Amino acid sequence: MIYRIRHLTEYEYQHPVSLCYNLAHLQPRNTSYQNCLSSKLQISPMPAYSRKRKDYFGNNIVHFSIEVPHRKLSVEITSDIRIDEGRASPELNLDLGSTCAQALEALKTNQTKSTLVAREFVLDSPMIKAMDALRDYAAPSFTPDRPLLSAARDLTHRIFTDFTYDPAFTTVATPLSDVLEHRRGVCQDFAHLAIGCLRALGYPARYVSGYLETLPPPGQVKMVGSDASHAWFSLYSPEEGWFEFDPTNDNMPAEQHITTAWGRDYSDVAPLRGVLFDGGKPQAPRVAVDVQRLEA
C-alpha cells in the first residue's frame, strides 16, 4: 500500500517573534515494513539555518532557526510511504513463543546486541516513571506461564475496555498517574500507560508516533485535514523481536498505521518543538493532517 501524508502545523503570534529555534520529528522513518519513497518539507518564513540528521533512536529530525521577525510560522511536510502487506496479521497466533517468565529470564541472560539495546527501554523516561499502581494494574495479564505476546494483547484490550477516550481531559503534560486514576485520555496517554505497565514488570517497551488512515462513513467524502497524528507502543521479546500494539483501537498495527518515529516516550519524538523570543502569550497551533491512499 502507498500513502501520501500531509502534515501542516501553523502558529500565529500576538507580537512579532524575533528569533526561534526548532526541532522537528516529521519525516517518517524507514523500517522493515515501511519505506519512505519521498518527503518534502516546507517552512515559512525561510529558515536561516536548517540541518537534517538522525537522532539517537535512528529517527529523521530537522533542526532549523528563523532569524527574521514574524507573526506566523508554517511547517508543512508531504511524504509518500510504502507499507508492506502482511506487516501484522489478524491471524497471528499470540499463544506461541516465550512465556512471561522465560522472557524475563532471557532479558537478564541474553547477550545479543538487540537484547542489550532493548534493555534501556525498561528504564524510567521523562514522562513515564515506575509506579506500583502500574505494576498492579498490569499484573493480572502477565502470569508466569502465559505467552508474553498474548499477555500484551490482553493488556491492550483491557486498556481499551477500562479507559475512556476523552480529548478534553488531558494535555501533553498530564501526569500518567492522573490518567490511571481517572481512566481517561487519548492515544498518547494510552501508549504511555501500556509502556509504564510493561516497564513496571520488567519488559522493554517503546513509544511509537505516526499516523492512522481513517475512512469516512459509507457514501460520504473524506474531509481534508480530518486525520490526526497517532501513537501506540512496541514490546520487545527476546529471540522474537519487537511487536506493536494499539490500545486506543484494540488491535495490532497493520497496513493502515504509518510510523514516523519511536523513542522512550512522547518527549523524544514530539512532532515540533522549539524556543522562541517575544511573540506574546503562547497560542495553540493549528494542525491539519491528511492520510491519502494512492494505490494498493
TrEMBL record:
Gene3D superfamilies linked to this entry: 3.10.620.30
InterPro entries the UniProt entry points to: Bac_transglu_N, Papain-like_cys_pep_sf, Transglutaminase-like
Protein's recorded name: Transglutaminase
Biological source species: Marinobacterium aestuarii
Transmembrane segment boundaries: none
Alphabetical list of PANTHER family matching this protein: BLR2979 PROTEIN, BLR5614 PROTEIN-RELATED
Annotated ranges, domain Transglutaminase-like: 179-249
